[in-house]
């Protein structure tokens, strides 16, 4: 676990960590964008010999950022995602250059395989070599999508491997592969720096995704909201705001907005929706149950999506979700996939605890009382997956049960703990 | 219907069937749909006419055009919530007039059509909330015939301004006011007290209802009072009769409310154990009383006081607890999800108990009860039996009341939003967007499934058993309770 040696990079990282710590940078999408920009800076300016060095620099960066503000989960998510992209790019680059051995470009039986599986095959070989080089370190086995020696991507042994813990996968690979472990030597160093442009463009793709996430999430809005429906939402979420505004272009409906005291973010949302021509009705948070019998859908925004399909969202969401369940009303969360976090905790409700300024609940005007009373102003609620019907993300509609598969596809195991 | 005759030049749709010259038969011949169409056309035409008239005035005085519209706005804006649609109705022709003055005549009809459409939309969309009782048009006591006693006028004002809130407080205040009325009342010649006093009291009750809808307990007590008035013997001297009635009122208050509360206190205290963490919501006089008594008797526990806007009544209860020394935590209702795991029981008050056991109480009670039940935390509702109502409500929409909070569209009170660091950003709410309205339901209905037990002066009963209490069914027999 190395730290950052380069002073220039360290300075930039410190700038971002202090912003995060002081909550000058708040909000899932803004944090994600800033983190992506920082990582892009790191990738552009870091000096690394092997790809492992770059990965460890980025991991050190991620560790610092996450420690600064553990409640902004998108920071860690972006770092993990970029690490995954780096490994993929490296694997793709490693399978292409001319000095590769002939038999590594094709499968053992000589048949052609599609380009993607070539990359993943090479990826798996790389990691096999990676593992060989670090055999002494007891780290979790990394991804091994195909068994070397398998006929094609769809062979039975591949299906068997899918979803198994990865250390088993390695066991299988050593059993099935006839040629044994692949060459454990690391790739020549001049290749590592050569993929820098490819990495930067991959990171820029991530940045583009983040910038347009509100538009992509709301692209199918009109299919989810129908005419004359009454939608309930809570507080302010830019994703939900974009979603509702997009739907309003084709549908005529009413939005009930719970004001989300004491931040009153609901007022901002209501004003914004009303300005867009949506019939908006602002209600206090206590009225959520009272109006629920007339609500057709509850649409909420998420702060972080957890691997079990649960959600950290604005305080009051658990009340709205339970009330909706009592009335058999569907609960929908709109969120970009950058909010998906691989974190897992047995007591998620404790993991969501984050407190804001208590003076907004009981302020100094109640001076006498303030002294003798504990005042709480929780920011987030944990909503368990049983209460959620669907996630509307920038990559389609996903049921909560599929979240863990998505986590596996987006992040690498060894990055879960930075 | 008079508009049909007052604008003869624009009425294009008068059918020539039967050629009836006089007014009423002609009116009957138009069907309801035709009449409505006619009215819409005339309204639109009127708006066009005023818009056409506006360019003539525009050169001289642009100011009078905005001023009347503002005047209309402030007048129409005092009723909150549901009648917000009337504010938009007055807004729309005014803005149409202003716009037409600027843009020219040929745009007039277009804009007028659009605003008429918008109006129709608005009316359609806010219909579901219109039966919520909000501030009545015409203000306090409008249209009530008869002399209103000054004590009732004062009480009505106090109700309307939310100076007296809470079921018990309102009921006791009303009964005390009625005692004053009865003592001041003088039976007119040739009339019996039994009949006339009832008639005299009716407009007083209507006046109170115009301030705020009748509370269930208050209604029950007044019904009993009317019964007692009706059985006053014709031979009883007037002062004796009045004293007797006042005594009945006193007995009602003392038995059904004050003593009942003491009994509930005993029952509920027995359920509090040392080290308990008790959650309460908003303010209930009974819950306050129980917890203070338990603490004074030596039980040691802590309380989480949950509060909510717009009433923020929990602060008052918090102040009482702090005075006695109970360790308290204070939070708003959105924070309940974060603390429910630590709570050992929930005490709630009620405005009314329905015959199927559902509890009609301050908005937010249902949320707290529901979440507590999900986490297997017992929910105790403390209520006297005089709050029993024979009604069954299916949901919180059947019967509710809106708080007279100023409409964010039209009030000049600045609403601020806070960002993560707590910096307030003033949001300009002078925009008066007709799409935005706010409603503040005061009550909600907690189904009996969310409640563990109902603590009344006749004991701890499951909520659905409330209707089987014999004495409550025989309301006409007065104060009989089967214990």
UniProtKB/TrEMBL annotation, chain A:
GO molecular function terms listed in the Swiss-Prot or TrEMBL record: guanyl-nucleotide exchange factor activity; translation initiation factor activity
Compositionally biased region (Acidic residues): 100-111
SUPFAM superfamilies: NagB/RpiA/CoA transferase-like (SSF100950)
Compartments (UniProt record): Cytoplasm, Cytosol
Cytoplasm keyword on record: yes
GO cellular component, one term: eukaryotic translation initiation factor 2B complex
Span list, region Disordered: 93-117
Entry-linked Gene3D superfamilies: Translation initiation factor eif-2b, domain 2
Keywords: Cytoplasm, Initiation factor, Protein biosynthesis
UniProt xrefs under InterPro entries: eIF2B_beta_subunit (IPR051855), IF-2B-related (IPR000649), IF_2B-like_C (IPR042529), NagB/RpiA_transferase-like (IPR037171)
Pfam families cross-referenced by the UniProt entry: IF-2B
Keyword Protein biosynthesis assigned: yes
SUBUNIT field: Component of the translation initiation factor 2B (eIF2B) complex which is a heterodecamer of two sets of five different subunits: alpha, beta, gamma, delta and epsilon. Subunits alpha, beta and delta comprise a regulatory subcomplex and subunits epsilon and gamma comprise a catalytic subcomplex. Within the complex, the hexameric regulatory complex resides at the center, with the two heterodimeric catalytic subcomplexes bound on opposite sides.
Family, per entry: Belongs to the eIF-2B alpha/beta/delta subunits family.
Protein's recorded name: Translation initiation factor eIF2B subunit beta
Automatic annotation (TrEMBL), chain B:
Region (Disordered): 1-108, 403-435
Xref: Gene3D superfamilies: translation initiation factor eif-2b, domain 1 (1.20.120.420), Translation initiation factor eif-2b, domain 2 (3.40.50.10470)
Annotated Basic and acidic residues bias: 31-43
Single Gene Ontology MF annotation: translation initiation factor activity
InterPro entries: IF-2B-related (IPR000649), IF_2B-like_C (IPR042529), M1Pi_N (IPR027363), NagB/RpiA_transferase-like (IPR037171)
Keywords, comma-separated and alphabetical: Cytoplasm, Initiation factor, Protein biosynthesis
Polar residues bias spans: 1-13
Biased composition (Low complexity): 45-62, 74-98
Subcellular location: Cytoplasm, Cytosol
Recorded superkingdom: Eukaryota
Cellular component, GO, one term: cytosol
PANTHER family: TRANSLATION INITIATION FACTOR EIF-2B (PTHR10233), TRANSLATION INITIATION FACTOR EIF-2B SUBUNIT DELTA (PTHR10233:SF14)
Assembly description: Component of the translation initiation factor 2B (eIF2B) complex which is a heterodecamer of two sets of five different subunits: alpha, beta, gamma, delta and epsilon. Subunits alpha, beta and delta comprise a regulatory subcomplex and subunits epsilon and gamma comprise a catalytic subcomplex. Within the complex, the hexameric regulatory complex resides at the center, with the two heterodimeric catalytic subcomplexes bound on opposite sides.
Family, per entry: Belongs to the eIF-2B alpha/beta/delta subunits family.
Protein name as it appears in the record: Translation initiation factor eIF2B subunit delta
